[in-house]
Write a structure and sequence with these properties.
By secondary structure, this protein is mainly alpha-helical. Helices cover 74% and strands 3% of the residues. Helix 4 packs antiparallel against helix 11, helix 4 (87-122) crosses helix 12 and helix 6 (159-175) crosses helix 11 (269-291).
């Protein structure tokens, strides 16, 4: 009796230590901040990753401003920050590269945020604006400016969010809703993407050869023509969408559970889905309106962040930072690899997107096994 009791006590103690170990691990990854009667908890891993991504964004931004067909040393760049330096360098950095940098960051943030929301709504990792035809719909309304404008130029940037919302409405109608229909939405979205892409090609074919060449370069994703007149209002709208998206993200974290469980927690599932979808469509349209239909970013950023963070953390902010880093790094590589010629940023991201998509599919296959 005493021997069996000691063995049971030993086994119980081992199980208890294992439970304590799991609890300690959770406590290590969780931190609390107290403000009067309010307590805010957050993941330490997400916080440290956030700091790291901010540092990488700063380094990538400096690299973007200093490198190109004409390289600028750090000493010359420091003089430019102090208001001195050569006038040619000032023109190059502050009038050409700086707006391009801002456009790249805004585009990456908008696309990554849209991809994160869409993947959470549908609970499908392949759901992204480019796969569902949202980017193509945003591009279509911009291209209509070629036919409607007497100057044969693209339409204003704000047409892109309208086109994205229009395609999203059609997508939700044809798929019979959003939540719980991940693969059905994916199939309908792919069909819409092919259809709207054909419409875009039709519009481009109606333009003159000179304008068609310029527009085709833009449809590959191009930040070369960025200016403050478009960036300022677009950035303000993006900030409003991001603030709303962070509010919705608190509820989207619960969507990993079944819909009845989420509703039992007092969450209006349909309302949250509608708000998240609307924000995702507008931000995807903003990304297209600023930098063109750039692929890979919206699908890659949320997946990579989800692999680096605990399952209960959505990582919307980290996804946005990673999206901005990817776009400006890809744009810089496109400027320096074949300098003085440029490779559109969308081509660079597409070269990365193909292998990445295969990797995602292989990982999903291994998980199912």
């Amino acid at each position: 009796m005493s021997r069996s009791h000691s063995v049971a006590t030993k086994d119980t103690g081992r199980a208890g230590r294992q439970r304590l170990k799991s609890i300690n691990i959770k406590k290590i990854d969780c931190a609390c901040l107290h403000f009067a009667q309010w307590t805010v908890t957050f993941s330490k891993r997400a916080f440290y990753l956030h700091l790291l991504l901010w540092l990488l964004l700063l380094v990538a931004s400096l690299f973007t401003l200093m490198q190109g067909s004409v390289a600028i040393s750090f000493g010359d760049f420091w003089l430019l920050c102090q208001g001195a330096g050569q006038s040619a360098h000032q023109l190059l950095v502050w009038d050409i590269r700086w707006p391009r940098l801002l456009a790249g960051v805004l585009t990456g943030v908008a696309l990554a945020a849209a991809g994160t929301l869409l993947q959470q709504i549908t609970q499908n990792r392949l759901s992204s604006p480019e796969v569902l035809g949202v980017n193509e719909g945003a591009t279509f309304l911009l291209l209509l400016g070629l036919l409607l404008s007497p100057l044969n130029i693209l339409g204003p940037w704000w047409l892109a969010p309208l086109g994205a919302v229009l395609v999203g409405i059609i997508l939700a109608f044809l798929a019979g809703g959003i939540g719980g229909r991940g693969y059905q939405i994916l199939l309908v979205g792919v069909a819409l993407a092919y259809f709207t892409r054909a419409l875009n090609d039709l519009v481009i074919s109606r333009a003159t050869a000179q304008h068609a060449s310029a527009v085709h370069s833009w449809t590959l994703g191009n930040l070369a023509n960025s200016d403050y007149t478009e960036l300022m209002p677009a950035s303000l709208l993006l900030m409003l969408c991001l603030v709303s998206a962070f509010g919705v993200a608190w509820h989207l974290r619960l969507f990993k559970f079944t819909e009845p469980h989420v509703q039992s927690l007092g969450v209006n599932v349909r309302q949250v889905q509608f708000m998240a979808l609307a924000l995702a469509l507008v931000m995807a349209g903003l990304g297209v309106g600023i930098g063109g239909p750039i692929s890979f970013v919206a699908i890659a950023a949320p997946i990579l962040i989800s692999r680096w963070l605990p399952p209960h953390v959505l990582g919307l902010g980290n996804s946005c930072l990673l999206g901005g880093i990817v776009v400006i790094v890809a744009d810089t590589l496109g400027r320096i690899v074949l300098a003085p010629n440029e490779i559109p940023v969308g081509v660079v991201t597409s070269l990365l997107g193909g292998p990445f998509l295969l990797w995602v599919l292989l990982q999903e296959k291994e998980v199912k096994r």
